[in-house]
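Is WQD placement plausible here? Inputs below.
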Amino acid sequence: MTILVTGGSGYIGSHTVLALQEAGHDVVVMDNLSNSSEESLRRVAQLSGKPVPFHQVDLTDPEGLDRLFSAYDFTAVIHFAGLKAVGESASIPLEYYYRNVAGTINLLRAMDAHDVRSIVFSSSATVYGEHNPIPYIEKMEIGASNPYGRTKEQIEDILSDLSAADERWSVALLRYFNPVGAHPSGLIGEDPQGIPNNLVPYIAQVAVGRREKLMVFGGDYDTPDGTCLRDYIHVVDLAEGHLAALNHIASRTGAFRWNLGSGRGSSVLEVLKSFEQAVGRPLPYEITGRRQGDLPAFWADPSSALADLGWSTTRSLDEMCEDHWRWQKNNPNGYAS
Ligand code: WQD
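Reply from A.M.:
I modeled the complex. Tokens:
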């Protein structure tokens, strides 16, 4: 199968491109490089021994998309490309709706025009919003509480409506929890631009000396150690979940949705401790005030992915931290190193 991966030079995208190639698929990547580097694809090719055809195309460029779909005979699309910072989305919502929602509509129109109607979409646990009980289950009512999450929810609705209207479409909606870690080679990993929003890349930059200390956003939550609980998932487990979903929809039509998570919650201090073990020394931190919008705790019920796809996470929090640290230690400045 020839798979188009949008956003394929990014963190999760590059790990998924590698997993696809290792599974024998031909892969083509499109990305606008606004938040990633082409270096990641050079390293993927080094690991797989296969070239990764790359095209710098923006989802907001319908002509560019048409040229790309005319150049290849794609079997399916895995769609990662989009803006993804919760906080930023509240300050520039129009940009988020334009790039994420309008961009995806452009992609779907290009797919339909070229008879490509199989898509795996990168959604997020953020769609569950603030009012659902944990663990989150796919059939729950969703209702995101920020513009970023609402773009994911709207794209899920567009894809569900499209597959209901046209039975030729096969759709997998994958709701990620908290992806962390890196390929065990240490050659590819997460390379956030600027100050990391997320916990583990921030801890990694403290460990490698780029940040002074970790600020723990709140130590007075109603949780065992007072810090928030999240469902962390190894990025290689996540990539394998995409292959399982792609294989599942290859022989089915309709829309399907799965949580990709471990089913367990880990606290901020537990993650810090695990990372310290990987680094081999204590790391400086300070417990400060809560971050606006954070929920005390959430994690996945991953049972439907296991039942339908035969997929579950296999890598532990310690492995996530060991692999993340190897990448950061070998690449102190990410791909710019
Ligand atoms: C995890 C915990 C923070 C940084 C976000 C998005 C979600 C998804 C994953 C895109 C929280 C605490 C963090 C720091 C800290 N992204 N923290 N100090 O907020 O669960 O999810 O990223 O799909 O959509 O919402 O992840 O890593 O930002 O935070 O104490 O410097 O770590 O308060 O409790 P989050 P996170």
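Short version: The mean pLDDT is 97.
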